């Protein structure tokens, strides 16, 4: 097949603007999927993706399109996720493309991730054309949105297409634009092989499946392929494309996108961003790779039953096979016993991993409040990185603490600017930009400490803007701050897993709110439970959970054993997701109380 007839592209958009729906329509129109096999959002094949209605992993699919010029084109469509935690998936997908369709909801307009993703595409030198989706909605205002696209993103709207991905209106025009606007790939199949790994996952039957874009040369069965960064060599078993089912092909040539299987057992060997070449006939230099993704949010996971520790380790190792960005290491907590300290790309990533561990592996977990990684310069000049508050050195050994800060972009309606600025100020933000995109839409940029974002920022933003604010952020660097560790003591003992790092000015308020919240969350026990918050040795807040007066069994006068058993069963259920710390039973919610403490509502 001639390269002239190939188009490699991604669909990018703000979350919920309809890119998965548009991808579905494209598959339908190109008959890749029989009508009877068509289910909504066919590319989102993980159960969890379907349930949450979001795309977690990027997917690639190859379809044929007979254009109006009479020629048959091959489209390699790469669907990308839209949530901020997964923006690294977007950027790696874009490296495999020549073009990007920017989907914008015509009833909503440009949002924070529309901007972030459009800039990513521009940075990757892609051809872009906008698709204004949802024009079937009465609130759709395509002209206004076109103006925003030109004015805010600076994107030419000459090739913009008005679409309803729901009804199919305009989709034919999108297909023609793909042919017209996006350039065919370059490269020569006779050159030494250079192919980019842009995704990989572990399949229990076939081993590692690599998703690759071939830039030069080709990949074919029996070829000895070499990964440039690790130097490892494997013999290729099979190559092919997704139609969307895995379909074997003879080879993958320059310009093409597809999968490679080579009996690889270890996903660590297939680093995303690495270049595949041919052993003995190497390309001169590796392709420009990707930014390595570093976890920025950390939390500890402990099994509620200590005997499930090994099961938890096994489950996490399995999950990691398909998620290179998820990291973990063993941790011992005085209060909670054996568990793991885990690193994530963001809060959503953390929630998804926890949910998968609980659902797919049937584990009951206690997770601790999310934290970020601090850079600490000790008084002896040593520099350490601490992502676990309980590992923070004593204050007298600390010279300075730096915390990660992000550049945050918020797009909202003018009427909510006031409360949003207030929220950002409360969260120790520094304003960088405020611009009216139109009379009623405003773009706000702030530098904010990441630590203030992981704690319920997004929820608060949604609530102060009644849902009319979109949000995106990228890590900007480190900033020195006056931070302290707040310890929580239960009956006089520090519960290490409850410690949090807070700004000094907020410590007192947080301590009050936290102890109050703990009191609500820790159930009454047979004895009085004192809850204190302290900085170092200084106790700054205290509450008490009163003792229970009656034993639950006291209700069972006489010897009705079945009734007694029922009550005990009931009690046991209530015990689920609790962890005994000394004599006191602490429920999961208490470990996340910091997320529920709402200082902005004071
Ligand atoms: N009325 C209308 N609704 C649409 C249209 N296109 C998509 N939707 C709806 O908008 C919602 C979001 O669509 P998705 O395709 O899941 O959006 P997405 O951008 O892929 O979202 P993520 O995969 O979560 O990033 C769904 O409820 C769709 O049914 C359209 O043209 N008209």
From TrEMBL:
InterPro entries, per database record: EF-4, EFG_III/V, EFG_V-like, EFTu-like_2, LepA_C_sf, LepA_CTD, LepA_IV, P-loop_NTPase
Entry EC no(s): 3.6.5.n1
PROSITE patterns attached to this UniProt entry: G_TR_2 (PS51722)
CDD domains in alphabetical order: EF4_II, EF4_III, LepA, lepA_C
Record's subcellular location: Cell membrane
Pfam family, one: LepA_C
GO biological process: positive regulation of translation
Reaction(s) this enzyme catalyzes, per UniProt: GTP + H2O = GDP + phosphate + H(+)
Keyword rRNA processing: no
Annotated membrane topology: Peripheral membrane protein
Tr-type G domain mapped to chain residues: 4-186
Keyword check for Nucleotide-binding: yes
Main function: Required for accurate and efficient protein synthesis under certain stress conditions. May act as a fidelity factor of the translation reaction, by catalyzing a one-codon backward translocation of tRNAs on improperly translocated ribosomes. Back-translocation proceeds from a post-translocation (POST) complex to a pre-translocation (PRE) complex, thus giving elongation factor G a second chance to translocate the tRNAs correctly. Binds to ribosomes in a GTP-dependent manner.
Protein family according to the UniProt entry: Belongs to the TRAFAC class translation factor GTPase superfamily. Classic translation factor GTPase family. LepA subfamily. Belongs to the GTP-binding elongation factor family. LepA subfamily.
PANTHER family: TRANSLATION FACTOR GUF1 HOMOLOG, CHLOROPLASTIC, TRANSLATION FACTOR GUF1-RELATED
Protein name: Elongation factor 4
């Amino acid at each position: 097949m001639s390269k002239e007839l190939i188009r490699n592209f991604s669909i990018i958009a703000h979350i919920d603007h309809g890119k998965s729906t548009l991808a579905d329509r494209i598959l339908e129109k190109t008959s890749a999927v029989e009508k009877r096999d068509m289910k909504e959002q066919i590319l989102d094949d993980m159960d969890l993706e379907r349930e949450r209605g979001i795309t977690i992993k990027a997917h690639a699919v190859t379809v044929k399109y007979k254009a109006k010029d009479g020629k048959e084109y091959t489209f390699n469509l790469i669907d990308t996720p839209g949530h901020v935690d997964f923006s690294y998936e977007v950027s790696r997908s874009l490296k495999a493309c020549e073009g990007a369709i920017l989907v914008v909801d015509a009833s909503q307009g440009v949002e924070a991730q529309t901007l972030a993703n459009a800039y990513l595409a521009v940075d990757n030198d892609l051809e872009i054309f906008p698709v204004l989706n949802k024009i079937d909605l009465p609130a759709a205002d395509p002209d206004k949105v076109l103006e925003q696209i030109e004015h805010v993103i600076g994107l030419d709207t000459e090739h913009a297409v008005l679409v309803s991905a729901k009804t199919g209106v305009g989709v034919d025009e999108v297909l023609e634009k793909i042919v017209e606007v996006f350039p065919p790939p370059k490269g020569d199949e006779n050159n030494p092989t250079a192919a980019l790994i842009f995704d990989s996952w572990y399949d229990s039957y076939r081993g590692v499946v690599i998703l690759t874009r071939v830039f030069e040369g080709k990949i074919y069965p029996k070829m000895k392929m070499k990964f440039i960064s690790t130097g490892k060599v494997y013999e290729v078993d099979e190559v092919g494309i997704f139609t969307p089912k895995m379909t074997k092909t003879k080879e993958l040539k320059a310009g093409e996108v597809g999968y490679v299987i080579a009996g690889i057992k270890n996903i660590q060997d297939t680093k995303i961003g690495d270049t595949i070449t041919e052993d003995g006939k190497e390309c001169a230099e590796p392709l420009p790779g990707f930014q390595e993704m570093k976890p920025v949010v950390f939390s500890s996971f402990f099994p509620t039953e200590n005997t499930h520790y090994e099961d938890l380790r096994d489950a996490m190792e399995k999950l990691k096979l398909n998620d290179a960005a998820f990291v973990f290491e063993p941790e011992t907590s005085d209060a909670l016993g054996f568990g793991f300290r885990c690193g994530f790309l963001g809060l959503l990533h953390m929630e998804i991993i926890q949910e998968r561990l609980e659902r797919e592996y049937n584990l009951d977990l206690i997770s601790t409040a999310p934290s970020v990684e601090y850079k600490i310069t000790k008084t002896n000049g040593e520099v350490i990185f601490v992502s676990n508050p309980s590992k923070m050195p004593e204050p007298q050994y600390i010279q300075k603490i730096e915390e990660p800060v992000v550049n945050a972009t918020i797009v909202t309606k003018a009427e909510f600017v006031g409360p949003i600025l207030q929220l950002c100020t409360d969260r120790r933000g520094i304003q960088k930009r405020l611009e009216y995109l139109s009379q009623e839409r405003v773009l706000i940029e702030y530098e904010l400490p990441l630590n203030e974002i992981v704690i319920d920022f997004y929820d608060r933003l949604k609530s102060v803007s009644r849902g009319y604010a979109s949000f995106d952020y990228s890590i900007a660097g480190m900033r020195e701050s006056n931070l302290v560790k707040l310890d929580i003591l239960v009956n006089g003992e520090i519960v290490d897993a409850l410690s949090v790092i807070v700004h000094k000015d907020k410590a007192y308020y947080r301590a009050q709110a936290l102890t109050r919240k703990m009191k609500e969350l820790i159930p009454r026990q047979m004895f009085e439970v004192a809850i204190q918050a302290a900085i170092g040795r200084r106790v700054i807040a205290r509450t008490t959970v009163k003792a229970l007066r009656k034993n639950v069994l006291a209700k069972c006068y006489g010897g009705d054993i079945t009734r007694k058993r029922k009550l005990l069963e009931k009690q046991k259920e209530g015990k689920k997701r609790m962890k005994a710390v000394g004599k006191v039973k602490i429920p999961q919610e208490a470990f996340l109380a910091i997320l529920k403490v709402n200082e902005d509502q004071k």
